[in-house]
Known about the structure:
The chain has ten helices and two strands; from the N terminus they run αβαβαααααααα. It is an all-alpha fold. A two-stranded parallel sheet has the order 1-2. The chain starts with a helix and ends in an 18-residue tail after the last helix.
Amino acid sequence: MKVLKDYESSQKLNKEKTSLFFSKNTSRDVQNHVKQQFGAQIIQHHEKYLGLPPLVGKGKRKDFNKIENQVGRKIVGWKGKLLSNAGREILIKVVAQATPTYMMSCFKLPDTLCKELNAMMSKFWWGQKEKERKMAWVSWEKLCTPKVEGGIGFRDLKAFDLALLAKQGWRIQQNPSSLIHRVFKAKYFTSIPFKEAQLGSHPSYA
């Protein structure tokens, strides 16, 4: 409560938009006590935060289905339009492949999801409409190579995801005073360097 009071000295906390979430191991008495002290409602399920799932359980694919639905809706809306190859290229690069970027910078998406997103964009690139099937004359892997090497320069989503996460790892190493470094260090690499850290038992999906 002292931390909250210090925070509210500069910015007021809106408790009507604030929720409390407890683990299953928290007793009902403790929950009620915290609720009375805090003045917010208790929720049973997390909502999305900045478009991200706050908790990722065993059904990882289900937690990330929103990305596939978002990209799928965009592509369905484009399929009915008469677009040149250049137009399809721009839409794929600027919109479809940019949609999951923020989520990929925080989580490693399931490989099956990356494959399905790539397949959706490949079908759109080759002009497939609705349930019709069209021949893919060049593999998606080839299309993902740079234009100077004969490709189109599309992103391989799996490789791009790993690159974004590697950038986060670099930030953790470069900013030892940051909150994420201190939290992760306390849990995963208390006495060893970051690069030697192991997941251990029951790690968070982050």
